[in-house]
Amino acid sequence: MHSVSVQNLSLKFGAAEVLKNLNLDVEEGEFIVLLGPSGCGKSTLLNCLAGLLELSEGQIHIKGKNVTWAEPSERGIGMVFQSYALYPQMTVRGNLSFGLKIAKLPKEEIEKRVQRASEILQIGPLLDRKPGALSGGQRQRVAIGRALVRDVDVFLFDEPLSNLDAKLRSELRVELKRLHNRLKNTMIYVTHDQIEALTLADRIAIMRGGIIQQLDAPQTIYNRPSNLFVAGFIGSPAMNFIKGTTVGGGKAFKFGDVTLNLVGYEGGAIMDRPKAIIGLRPEHLAIVDEAVPGLTIPAVVEIDEPMGADSLVWLEAEGKQISVRVPVEHRPVAGTKVHLKVDIAKSSLFDETSELRI
Amino acid sequence: MTNAASFATTPSGAKPKPFITWERFVVYAVLIVCALFFLLPLYIMIMTSFKSMAEVQSGNIFVPTLHPTFDAWSKAWDSACTGLYCEGIKVGFWNSVKITVPSTIVSIAVASVTGYSLANWPFKFSEVFFTILLLGSFIPYVVMIYPLVIITRELGIFSTLWAVILVHTIFGLPIQTLLFRNYFASLPQELFKAARVDGAGYWGIFFRIFVPMSVPIFTVSVILQVTGIWNDFLFGVIYAGPTNYPMTVQLNNIVNSSMGGKAYNVDMAATILTGIVPLTIYFVSGKYFVRGIAAGAVKG
């Protein structure tokens, strides 16, 4: 039994199709991150799961129960919002217990759950304060607590850390991971921040235009992106793309005067394709002095951007800009002629027409 | 900061301007003239109301009274004649209270719930409905007076308090609904979503989440309604019937019915008594009033 199962979900706002025939199965206790650029439908999907938007087509099951038309409170979900959405006129205790009071739980049970949540989230001393008197991080903790007290199967997070400053964000990110390890609930988390996605997720669903482009473990998404969009979206600094052709029955990639040996590439049948794209991550390229036929690209150093431990070096090869990530102490001098060593096992090949990974 | 003293020998920055400059003089002069223009009638009213008729008739309306007396006030309240009765303006005061209180409560209750529905529970054609409502607030009252006379007559309530109350309630609705809809639409949508996830329903969200957050807008609409209804003359004179005339109509009748000489001191006292309710409200809640007008103006 899946914890959450979405089948053929479609959503239309008038003529605009926001979600298109979407399928998603989430395992018990899994941490799923929905990642994508603004307007890709990730928050919309979350709102559909929560029951805050009515679907045009499709079904949603939570814990095996069909909840497609159920009220948000009857779905066994708790939700945390970007703006915290705490009730300003109630104390923290009032915020935590509001839903439980509506569900008409006995007083002792409410008190017990509020106590437990406030211990887990360390907000005990704040219980009698109003949200206005809390900091951003404390507010978001209370918002998580409001989902926690509901004792639900599935947690939904809608960009919960986006309103916090960078330092607090990384602190709460670790805390969220700790919370997930402790509670073992299913969590579905929407974000546009790929660091959050890569660090938190068991599996990431990359979305664009209302369609899930790829649903895989973070490492798989990073190493073997299924199409050009995913490859370009994940990874910072972004992947280098070079247009060329595959020749010799799929044995080599050719662009300009450069030929790269494709033996050892991990993927499908390469064949001879007149239009192909090779994707090389800046961290998978190395700067070497000697040319090795079939393994290196001759290049000229243009500029570099030191980023503390590493430096991003921009080079020109065959009229294309290529970036390489090197340790800051190994930065080459601008104007130097060097060679870029390609690790073909870690590179990605795409068909230019279909944009899919080969 | 040990060297601070050596730096502070001469002041830095632009030279401060003297308080009285030519521009400032003109601004203040205009403001003072305007203030006097509006305050002078009030001053004369208050002074005259404390004078006896003998003193009034001696002229010199600007001179403060030498023998202040409350006679005119008690006469205005208790025994001034309207042409039909001589029971003073108190009858009108209580009529106005009976008209204002229920129409304010009902119109705000209905408008707040309608505004909440329009802002948070969109239904089919809700935008069309809202547009019609909006248009309603731009149609001149005068157009609807006669149809409403017929309607109230058919309902059998013409010339009763119920008729004025009904009319005031209906006419308050468009602008009040607009006010509430815009206010609720400006509250964070995520709050509404959070309450739904917590299991609160239509009324639960309204009463337990939104109303406690909406004290400012409720204050504003109470002010608008109370002052608007209290100051009304037209609907009162048409729909209420002679025994139920509100204070404004009663005041007009007192001032315009003369038996012998005009009792200016009584007229002035009656006028101040009538104006004191909206005046007090403006003074006490001026801040909210301005805020409410601004709230109604921005956002769509």
Short précis:
The complex is a heterodimer of chains A (358) and B (300). By secondary structure, chain A is of the alpha+beta class. Chain A has helices at 42-50, 92-102, 107-121, 136-148, 166-183, 194-200, 218-223, 228-233; strands spanning 4-13, 16-26, 31-35, 57-62, 65-66, 77-80, 154-158, 186-191, 203-208, 211-216, 240-247, 252-255, 258-261, 276-280, 285-288, 296-307, 310-317, 320-327, 337-342, 348-351.
Description:
The complex is a heterodimer of chains A (358) and B (300). Chain A has 358 residues and is of the alpha+beta class. Chain A has two domains: 4-233, Rossmann fold; 240-351, OB fold (Dihydrolipoamide Acetyltransferase, E2P). Chain A has helices spanning 42-50, 92-102, 107-121, 136-148, 166-183, 194-200, 218-223, 228-233, and strands spanning 4-13, 16-26, 31-35, 57-62, 65-66, 77-80, 154-158, 186-191, 203-208, 211-216, 240-247, 252-255, 258-261, 276-280, 285-288, 296-307, 310-317, 320-327, 337-342, 348-351. In chain A, the strands form four sheets. Chain A has a six-stranded mixed sheet with strand order 6-7-8-3-9-10, with helices on both faces. In chain A, strands 13-12-11-14-20 form a five-stranded antiparallel sheet. In chain A, helix 2 (92-102) packs across helix 3, helix 2 (92-102) packs parallel to helix 4 (136-148) and helix 3 packs across helix 4. Chain A is elongated, with a radius of gyration of 25 Å. The mean pLDDT of chain A is 92. Chain B is mainly α. Chain B has two domains: 22-69, no CATH class; 90-297, MetI-like (MetI-like fold). Helix content of chain B is 72%, strand content 0%. Chain B is built from 14 helices and no strands. In chain B, helix 5 runs antiparallel to helix 13 (247-256), helix 6 crosses helix 8 (161-186) and helix 8 (161-186) runs antiparallel to helix 11. The longest helix of chain B is centred in the last third of the chain and has 34 residues, at 264-297. Mean pLDDT of chain B is 87; it is low at 296-300. Chain A binds chain B through residues 47, 50-52, 71-73, 77-79, 81-89, 98-99, 102-103, 146, 150, 158, and chain B through 188, 190-191, 193-200, 204, 208-209, 212-213.
